[in-house]
Specification:
- It contains two helices and six strands.
- It is an alpha+beta fold and 136 residues long.
- A hairpin with a 2-residue loop joins strand 3 and strand 4.
- The longest helix is centred in the C-terminal third of the chain and has 16 residues.
- The chain is globular and about 50 Å long.
Length: 136
């Protein structure tokens, strides 16, 4: 388990259907895990680099796309060969437990729901056309 009893977690109230949407859809599902490789402080901002994302899920990441780390909706700053980086602004550092992460810590990752839907549709179209999964 990533968390022990007493560990601070990130919780946010569920979005009401009538609310304005100001980010990406985060459902609370865990699609996989990654490991914090390094932390780079740049003034008031902190860049976190995560590695160890499943190769099956790397296609769900795109620069300036969305990802949730431990339930926190973030923008992918840049892609790396084995993962991605995010830049934390002062507000995110103040309001979440991401400020407590240290290199080597594992985190839960939820990939962007729209990216998952597109990937699934591409997979289905490939199967209908007789294309093998490796070719999709």
């Amino acid at each position: 388990s990533l968390f022990e009893i007493g560990t601070q977690v990130n919780l946010e109230r569920a979005l009401s259907v009538s609310d304005r949407l100001g980010g990406h859809f985060v459902t609370g599902h865990v699609d996989g895990q990654a490991t914090l490789k390094c932390v780079n402080t740049q003034g008031d901002y902190v860049e976190l680099q995560f590695d160890g994302a499943s190769s099956d899920n790397l296609c769900l990441l795109t620069g300036k796309g969305s990802v949730a780390v431990n339930g926190v909706s973030l923008t992918v700053n840049r892609l790396t060969p084995d993962g991605f980086t995010v830049m934390l602004i002062p507000h995110t550092l103040e309001k979440t437990n991401l400020k407590d992460l240290a290199p080597g810590n594992k985190v839960n990752i939820e990939y962007d729901m729209l990216a998952k839907m597109v990937a699934r549709q591409v997979e289905l179209v490939g199967h209908k056309k007789g294309v093998s999964e490796e070719q999709v």
